[in-house]
Amino acid sequence: MMTSVDTDLMRVLADPLRMRIVTLLAHETLCTTHLVEETGARQTNLSNHLKVLRDAGVVDTEPCGRFTYYKLRPDVIAALAGQFGELAERARAAADRKRSCP
Q1: 46-67 pLDDT, tens per residue?
Q2: How far is CA 42 from CA 13, 29, 48, 76, 91, in A?
């Protein structure tokens, strides 16, 4: 069975600001205000990136009064890491195999 990495999730995480958000949320649950302070991004831009992360299932939201807190879904990150781990194992196993040219 061929192992493939979730390319849609890879595209979501390929954006530097989204990856920064994910890295920050790996340390603690934060609201938009905190994320604006930490990243220096404009609130509207940050909200758009958070929507992409929510839609991809990477983050969950938690309403708290007039604020919305965001937290990382570690299971999604772990699944992606597992896919890369399987890919690395296949590459190790295939290191000595070479297809001959016709």
Answers
A1: 999 999 999 999 999 999 999 9
A2: 19, 19, 10, 26, 41
